[in-house]
Amino acid sequence: MSLNSHIEWTDATWNPVRGCVKISPGCKHCYAETFAERFRGVKGHPYEQGFDLRLVPEKLTEPFAWRSPKLVFVNSMSDLFQSGVPDPYAEAVSRVMAAANWHTYQVLTKRSERLLQLLSGQLLFAAELGNIWWGVSVEDRRHGLPRVDDLRKTPAKFRFLSIEPLLEDLGEFDLSGIAWVIVGGESGPGARPMKREWVISIRKQCGEQRVPFFFKQWGGVRKAKNGRLLDGRTYDEYPERVAAQVPDRVNCLKIAAAFLESFEMGLKDPLVQLTA
Ligand code: SF4
Questions:
Q1: Prediction pTM value
Q2: Which of 77, 113, 189, 259 is the residue whose CA sits 20 to 30 A from 122?
Q3: Nearest-10 crossing angle of helices 112-119, 141-153
Q4: Which residues of the chain have pLDDT under 50?
């Protein structure tokens, strides 16, 4: 877990899965891939295997050790709902989020069909919790907007959109059932531009439908220079968080031990297959 995330809309990152497979235009300049591939072949580095998909079961219980409540971005270096992550492992990650409930978790995916399938079944227990925020990435109309429809069909208590990198005007779209919207442009070499009017349109729709709006950045090749002001101000709206009491250290350890015990058998097979 990284305690000091540089991502504007979160406090920390937790990566019990590493690596991913690109699936849509928003993935073109994936920062996680660029970062991970830098370390391919570096012995002992967490990204020794580059961006290849890898489960990291030794990271599963990390949130239990983190005792001040945080906003945690889950799998900032991966996608929990990609097909290579077995259902029991996605359940294990969700069980941790349900048990270490003094944190608020942000789970973001481009695999909205599997999100819908699992939240409606095996992960229903986690869908109904207020401390787990389920979100989809939206980059354009063709790939992104159908994900919003899938997300809306889930029984999630809290749903959010990460509209980043915004690649075109999304037009008018349905924000019903959505509790938070983040918007941002692409950054880094070869960044695709984002037009002001595309952002204004989303801000307007959020305002009309009373959805908190967070403007992350303009992006571009020189991200710091372009900043994050929109019409002369920042937009850092957040939804309300449900904060559970942090247990004392001994109880924290007991909860973590109980988690490990209850999931050991269920996790064994898929973990052996994928981490061998
Ligand atoms: S889904 Fe996310 S993590 Fe996976 S390749 Fe695309 S941008 Fe990268």
A1: 0.92
A2: 77
A3: 0
A4: 1, 268-276
Three-state helix/strand/coil letters over 13-69: EECCEEECCCCCHHHCCCHHHHHHHCCCCCCCCCCCCCCCCEECHHHCCHHHHCCCC
What span, in angstroms and rounded, lies between the C-alpha atoms of 156 and 202? 22
Q: What is the pLDDT of residue 270?
A: 39
Beta carbons of 183 and 199 less than 8 angstroms apart = yes
- For atom 8 of ligand 1, the residue with the nearest CA is 30
Chain centre to alpha carbon of residue 110:
10
- Ligand 1 pocket (Cβ < 6 Å) reads 20, 22-23, 26-27, 30, 32-33, 78-79, 110
Distance of CA 190 to the CA centre of its chain: 24
| Residue with token string 């580059």 | 50
Residue listed under structure tokens 């709902």: 81
The rounded Cα 213 to chain-centroid distance in angstroms is: 17
Contact indicator for 108, 245 with CB cutoff of 8 Å? no
Q: Kindly report the protein residue whose alpha carbon is nearest to atom 7 of ligand 1.
A: 27
Separation CA 259–CA 227 (nearest Å): 42
Q: Kindly report, residue by residue over 124-155, the tens digit of the pLDDT.
A: 999 999 999 999 999 999 999 999 999 999 99
What pLDDT score does 72 carry? 96
Measured at the alpha carbon of residue 58, what is the angle toward residues 28 and 39, in degrees to the nearest 5? 40
